[in-house]
Amino acid sequence: MEIPGPITSMTMNAQLLKGTHEPNAYLLKGLYVATSAMIAQNLRTLAITQNIGNAESRATKPGEQPYKRKIVIFQDYYDSSKEVNLVRVKRIAYDTSPARRVYSPGDPGADKDGFVLESNVQAVAEMADMRDASRSHEAATKAFEKIIQMLQSTIGILKNA
Predict the structure, then answer these.
(1) Total-model pTM
(2) Which residues, 6 or more positions from 161, have their beta carbon under 8 angstroms from its beta carbon?
(3) Which residues, given as ranges, of the chain have pLDDT below 70?
């Protein structure tokens, strides 16, 4: 991608106004990137919230599997209509680590030996992941806000020209 040279006048030449050579087109691409990051982090936050909510869940019948931890897998991709690389959730996978076995002979979900299977979610790890997702979302939001400010400044300059 070629970066245009300095603008010499307020009436930019026709080539500069075409397609991605328009200065504000770069800002719009930044908005697309920031938005895709916010959406991806929102989905990650949703999965983490579900994990935390089910961290203490247990099997209700002997042999039944408890809630399995969800893991969000991201993917970067090129959006040809916007001519920019974006991020999205590729898929939501399930953690393959085994369920915890807890001795609780009176529980309705206990097997013949008195063990109940509990979710493989570790609440402390999920809280750390939540903090990371929150910070990533906040960074994308700040980038989005900064780009909006730049666009507003451009509009202000054009109004005064």
Answers:
(1) 0.79
(2) 10
(3) 1-24
